[in-house]
Amino acid sequence: MESRIALSLRAKFIIPIIGIILLLGAVTTIFVHSTLTSTLTRELQERGTVISKNLAANSIDAILTDNVVELRRLIFDAKEAEKDIAYVYILDSKKDIIVHTFEDGFPKALLELHSSGDIRLLETEEGFIRSIATPVLDGKAGFVYVGISESSIREKIADITKTLFILTFIAIGAGILLAYFTVNLITKPIYVLTKGAEEIGKGNFDTRINISTEDEVAILADAFNKMIIELKKSMVRLIQSEKLASIGMLAAGVAHEINNPLTNILLSAESLLRKRTDENTLKQKLEEIISEVEHARIITRNLSEFSRQVEPEIKEMDIKEILERILGIIRIKNIRVERDIQSVILEGDPSQLQQVFLNIIINAVQAMPKGGRLSVSAGEANGFVEVSISDTGVGIPEESLGKIFDPFFTTKKVGEGTGLGLSICLGIVEKHEGEIKVNSKVGEGSTFTVRLPVDRYGKHSDS
Ligand SMILES: Nc1ncnc2c1ncn2[C@@H]1O[C@H](COP(=O)(O)OP(=O)(O)O)[C@@H](O)[C@H]1O
Ligand SMILES: [Mg+2]
């Protein structure tokens, strides 16, 4: 998912950059091309005109004296002096050829080209030729014609245009690279941010987003971190209130459970008061009282164990101890408790795992308002502790099964359920790298199975 986001951001940067560079490249190329063409051809034409005029001035005498040898020397000298000159020829006043520089005879087609002393552009096999005519003594003596080739300047222009093209493509390449790095610079913190958000989505509230840049993204990350801290605080509050709610539900059972020893204590004390008793009976009654007080103390200690807000801590514990502690205070009318609990030592947070089983057991009890059977079993298999808690209650309809672990999903009345119980369970179990499975049939009951790795840190792998 992240790579898709990064790619599209990259494309958003690169496409306009390529567009701008292409546009700039095209505009520059067109501008340079047309300016060069007009400047160079004008310059070439001026050069041709100067040569032609010089030749006209220098050849007056030779034309008038019919000195063909001199004329021939003049035109070949002119042609030699300038490599862009394609040809030179001189006509007399009747427009007959006197001399020319063509090696393969004079092309007659040229004669029709100039009607007067002007400039013409011819397209030949050797490229464009600018033909310049200059009258000698206003045409009374004759005409000098100079053909000046444009191929060398056209080559020059083509070369420059090619260079411009190459430069444009280099600029595009550099632009893409630049965009790539810029985008990386921008997307990297965004990626870090997304990762952080995902972590929090998984319920990992200890996530902090570290962004080294000092820009808007860093401000966002800062706000994000503050939000996580607040979230964690309210999560802790919620968990605590859910904990208190479940303890409240235990209270009825506890009251009942404490009532029994208290009644026994009362009876024993009363009988001691009423009758004069011998040493032995007195001792026996007092022992009864002590044992009942011990019993009550265990229950209250268990209860206070639940309500304590303890810091998370990982240590070794016995799963049996935890389950027995819960079952020791949960005693509800019409509910028979069956247990098959093996002692298994595992590593984890006792207070948190106790919360897990308490939540599941309370749900089971709540699912059996008319009574039923609560079965709790625990054992070890393949390096996992497996705890199963079954009830013969109302069951969970198929369509709710996918939602029961969602925070705030509840089918219970206000005051009876917060909808947080199972989501807290799942959070804790996943933190312990375990899993929870549910099997349920409406009208028959449900089984929640919690699997937890026994040796999560590999401490006992060698024993
Ligand atoms: N043992 C069970 N039998 C039937 N339904 C259950 C059982 N455990 C959980 N549920 C369903 O899952 C829902 C969510 O449970 P939970 O997260 O503990 O929230 P709460 O108990 O506050 O409603 C319950 O409202 C109930 O509908
Ligand atoms: Mg619940």
UniProtKB/TrEMBL annotation:
Protein location: Cell membrane
PANTHER family: C4-DICARBOXYLATE TRANSPORT SENSOR PROTEIN DCTB, SENSOR HISTIDINE KINASE
Pfam families attached to this UniProt entry: HAMP, HATPase_c, HisKA, sCache_3_2
Documented EC number(s): 2.7.13.3
CDD domains named among the record's database cross-references: HAMP, HisKA
One GO cellular component term: plasma membrane
Keyword Membrane: yes
Gene3D superfamilies assigned to the protein according to its UniProt record, in alphabetical order: 1.10.287.130, 6.10.340.10, Histidine kinase-like ATPase, C-terminal domain
Gene Ontology MF: a single term: ATP binding
Name of this chain's protein: histidine kinase
Record-annotated HAMP domain positions: 184-236
Keyword hit for Methyltransferase: no
Keywords: ATP-binding, Cell membrane, Kinase, Membrane, Nucleotide-binding, Phosphoprotein, Transferase, Transmembrane, Transmembrane helix, Two-component regulatory system
Catalytic activity: ATP + protein L-histidine = ADP + protein N-phospho-L-histidine
Transmembrane portions of the chain: 13-32, 164-183
Top EC group: transferase
UniProt-listed InterPro entries: HAMP_dom, HATPase_C_sf, HATPase_dom, His_kinase_dom, HisK_dim/P_dom, HisK_dim/P_sf, sCache_3, Sig_transdc_His_kin-like_C
Domain Histidine kinase positions: 253-456
Membrane-topology annotation of the record: Multi-pass membrane protein
Main location: membrane
